[in-house]
Amino acid sequence: xxxxxxxxxxxxxxxxxxxxxxxxxxxxxxxxxxxxxxxxxxxxxxxxxxxxxxxxxxxxxxxxxxxxxxxxxxxxxxxxxxxxxxxxxxxxxxxxxxxxxxxxxxxxxxxxxxxxxxxxxxxxxxxxxxxxxxxxxxxxxxxxxxxxxxxxxxxxxxxxxxxxxxxxxxxxxxxxxxxxxxxxxxxxxxxxxxxxxxxxxxxxxxxxxxxxxxxxxxxxxxxxxxxxxxxxxxxxxxxxxxxxxxxxxxxxxxxxxxxxxxxxxxxxxxxxxxxxxxxxxxxxxxxxxxxxxxxxxxxxxxxxxxxxxxxxxxxxxxxxxxxxxxxxxxxxxxxxxxxxxxxxxxxxxxxxxxxxxxxxxxxxxxxxxxxxxxxxxxxxxxxx
Length: 384
Known about the structure:
By secondary structure, the chain is an alpha+beta fold. 36% of the residues lie in helices and 22% in strands. Strands 1-5-6-12-11-10-7-9-8 form a 9-stranded mixed sheet, with helices on both faces. Helix 5 packs across helix 11.
């Protein structure tokens, strides 16, 4: 094997893309900071018990595992930063009231999420702790849409669901061990599978089959009130969705409802959402409420948030132009070096051409040069 080959679905990031990603990362973190979200940097490696707390089997399968040579315990390379941030809020910060945190870093997956996906996503996200009301869900959803606005995403749409509906229906199962299988069938919209599934009460079977088709505009919520069972948990979930959808719609957001969306039902506890953009088949941003996770770290906290893959989001942004730069000759003259240092302090990029080489400037646009005149070294603009 050639020594320069990388593992499958792992890739280097070259200068132009790296500059684009870093600019977007800074823009997102500045955006979240303007809402009061504080930056945290969890470690790439943790003990497995802590890393997978409250996240379900799916994250376990995506996590690389190894043995710590110091303690002999099993450790994991994080596949998701969200549980780590929940641990920081519950166990390290231990603040009262509302806490807003954001993050940006690499995660590793044992398998790619799709054919064109990487196994090393650059995950960026924001989490809000300590408020159980819909105001927190609204703020997080607005911030997710603002993230898409930052890259001028085309026709973003927010797809809403609520785990309260499926949780209420699963409480009626006579065989609780069927829960994971039933949820998987609903997620696949597998009505024949639900029809033939043994052990389901008939009323629950009909409700689950109905759930598969409850997708569309906000009017779907009224249809759900008529067709789903009269259960307090279901109607509370529908009321919360109605309130949030109307609030987001009043702010100009395009909203759809998919009550059959079951992603992360073991992890999420309330409203969940996914953001889609025109001509992009999969969700660009995913988020929702996950109130139970902090309890495993010794402190139950209301929590909601979202995350995105920076590389996927960058693909939606316009290609940035090459950065302007100043070309300077190589010389140890004190006046020249003083001027170069002054220009760099002002925020300019100054590239010195090394002796005997043509400057390699594919990533920069030279629009000025330093020339020596009768008045000394000066910046001269090039003609377009």
